[in-house]
Amino acid sequence: DSTEANSRRGEERRRGEARMRGGGGGMMDDGGVEHAQIPNSFGHELRACLRCRLVKTYDQFRENGCENCPFLDMDKDRDNVVSCTTANFTGIISLMDPNRSWAARWLRIGRFIPGCYTLAVSEELPEEYQGMCQDNNVQYFPPKRP
Amino acid sequence: AASRSRAPAGGGGVRKRSRQDNFIDDSAIEDEDEDEEDDGGSRPRKKGGGGVRGFFDEEAQVDEDEEEEDEGEGEDDFINDAGADIPDDDAGRGSRSRHSIPMRDEEEDIDEIERQVRERYARSTHIEYGEEAADVEQQALLPSVKDPKLWMVKCAIGHERETAICLMQKFIDRTDLQIKSVVALDHLKNYIYVEAEKEAHVKEACKGLRNIYASAKITLVPIKEMADVLYVESKNVDLARDTWVRMKLGVYKGDLAKVVDVDNVRQRVTVKLIPRIDLQVLASKLEGRVVAKKKTFVPPPRFFNIDEAREMHIRVERRRDKDSGEYFEMVDGLMFKDGFLYKPVSIKSIHTQGIQPSFDELEKFKKPGDDMNGDMSSLNTLFSNRKKGHFMKGDAVIVVKGDLKNLEGWVEKVEDTTVHIRPKISDLPKTLAFNEKELCKYFKPGDHVKVVSGVQEGTTGMVVKVDGHVLIILSDTTKEHIRVFADHVVESSEITTGITRIGDYELHDLVLLDNLSFGVIIRVETEAFQASVFLRIFNGC
Q1: Ordered structural domains, chain A, with CATH
Q2: Which of A11, B38, B49, B169 is the most exposed place for a label (fewest CB within 10 A)?
Q3: pLDDT at residue A59, rounded to an integer
Q4: Residue B168: closest C-alpha in chain A
């Protein structure tokens, strides 16, 4: 975990991003807990990452990428956001403590950082991005089909 | 083989044995040998005395001996006991790694080991890869008494998601919030679920939130129901092109439609419908004349005819749709092609599940010349609407999909979605398994059948022709040929007298019409939502 956090911190410093109030963006707030950005609206702009099911707005993905899946480069190319996220998702779970939460374990999101996630997405991650997951040694669970 | 303890033994008195002797097969002999040598008194006995006690001592000493002897070669025995076939070279290497695993009794339950391993790794904080494999049973993740509990909390209706997100924000702002997660389900209004160790944590978290009343009820969810809370129903029918749907609202309510385009982003689809256009009203509207719309009047479905429209002085434009690249006739903002109306609608305004297109509806949708049997989409809808238990033992069936198409047989066994049949051809194996979607009930000309679902329900008759899985039946009552899907029919010797009454009227009643003609009812039919009555009309004298 610490290696991941360190690399992220390094990236943030390089980009020299200003910290948003309550936004976090994978950074540690002073004395606080590392977490993903919280969606700043509730409407149709909300999207879920197809790999980790993190929920944010389109703009938040575009600016800061996905905190659990930085290799998807959502902040580099708008096409990545469109292909790797979907507005078609069911239910929201605000995850404060992934290590101890039973719900997180059941939904297989217990390894991700605190943030807002969705219970289920309806689409699969496109093949080329699934390949990127494998290249980065990262697990991808496609949504269950009946 | 006797169970042996594996505690490392002390030194001395190691008898050199050849590796062969340590094999299981020889263990019996081994024991005997040791016994004999013990009796020789070369080892000091712990306790004196004979009889039973002496016997016990021997046992103890035998164990000791075994330990010492097996010290260097113990791993061989271990390997052999487990039945693994590992070459001697590996024994040494194997032994080093095995010291890290607590030595287990051979008789320990395999299931017990599996459960412990799963528990161990389910809780560890490893790096992401190498953790639970995708095929770890979901069962292993069921909640236990050690997990936080789930509490149901009442909140402002319509604000469930907002509440969940607010609680997330609150957690970040304050370091003392002790809840673990908050769940807002799409289909559950008025409530959210909070995961926490204690009810007090939930109360504390909800204090001061605009969407949760101070007096809000907090209810504990029983542990057995926790997994059900997170259950998400996956949609069975993927909205894809060529799927059959039914309209929920408006002029076209209840009408069958075919999906031609799906836009998931905006949650809209374009569907193809048989237009219900009142050309008169349309013409008036376009000319600017205001016509009082009759609310109850729904125009009958009819294909759109450009020439007809033009005759009514309705302007028809030929336009190219930028998304699909195809040409449409545009009238008053509506798109037509080949007589069909192409209408963009929201996904919420259509029924996607349980669509049973009647034969007539499907027929109307097809242009003449289209092959009903070859239409995979309508077949798919038909098959997906089949009720469970559709096939029964003894049913005659025919394969309609795959390499064994057209093979006939009889149902031997039905298991969920797999059907085992006994094929008609003797050269094939006794039973073959098929997915139920690949089979269709089979009838021969001459079979007497009864229609049990669909538009023609209740009719009985004799099969005169089989065309794929469409049957042509000679009705007992009307002596007409009717077309039905084989799916909707069962073999039966029942002969129905058919429907003879509708409302107040009965077959062969003499009735008077509005305009002074009268007639005799010669036939009564029920269609999906209408009843029709056929009359032989006599002109007024």
Answers
A1: 41-135 (3.30.40.210)
A2: B49
A3: 93
A4: A94
CA distance B378 to B356: 10
- Checking B3-12 for CB contacts under 8 A at 24+ apart, the result is B3/B105, B3/B106, B3/B107, B4/B63, B4/B66, B4/B67, B4/B70, B4/B77, B5/B63, B5/B67, B6/B74, B6/B78, B6/B103, B7/B67, B7/B103, B8/B67, B8/B71, B9/B64, B9/B67, B9/B68, B9/B71, B10/B68, B11/B68, B12/B68
Contact B453, B488 (CB under 8 A): yes
Other CB atoms closer than 10 Å to residue B264's CB: what's the count? 14
Of A1, A86, A119, the CB nearest to B230: A119
Length of chain B: 541
pLDDT in tens, B160-180: 999 999 999 999 998 789 999
Examine the predicted complex and report whether its ipTM is higher than 0.85: no
Length of chain A: 146
Contact present, B390 and B487 (Cβ < 8 Å): yes
Interatomic CA distance for residues B371 and B368, integer angstroms:
8
CA distance B481 to B386: 25
DSSP string for B181-209: EEEE-TT--SEEEEEESSHHHHHHHHTT-
CB contact set of B213 (below 8 Å; sequence gap of 6+)? B154
Taking contacts as CB-CB distances below 8 angstroms, the residues of chain A near B227 are: 106
In the numeric block, the tokens 């957690």 are attached to B171
3-state secondary structure of B76: helix
d(CA A25, CA A38): 8
Domains of chain B: residue spans and CATH: 143-229 (3.30.70.940), 243-290+298-364 (no CATH), 392-491 (2.30.30.30), 501-533 (no CATH)
Do B168 and A116 make contact, defined as CB atoms within 8 angstroms? yes
pLDDT tens profile B489-526: 887 777 666 666 667 777 788 887 777 677 787 766 65
Give the residue among B501, B455, B383 at the shortest CA–CA distance from B473. Answer: B455
Q: Which two tokens stand for residue B246?
A: 């039914």
Residues B279 and B308: beta-carbon distance below 8 Å: yes
CA distance B322 to chain A (A): 21
User: Looking at CA atoms only, how far is residue A48 from chain B in angstroms?
Assistant: 12
Mean pLDDT over each residue of chain B, to the nearest integer = 71
Sign of the CA dihedral running A99, A101, A103, A105: positive
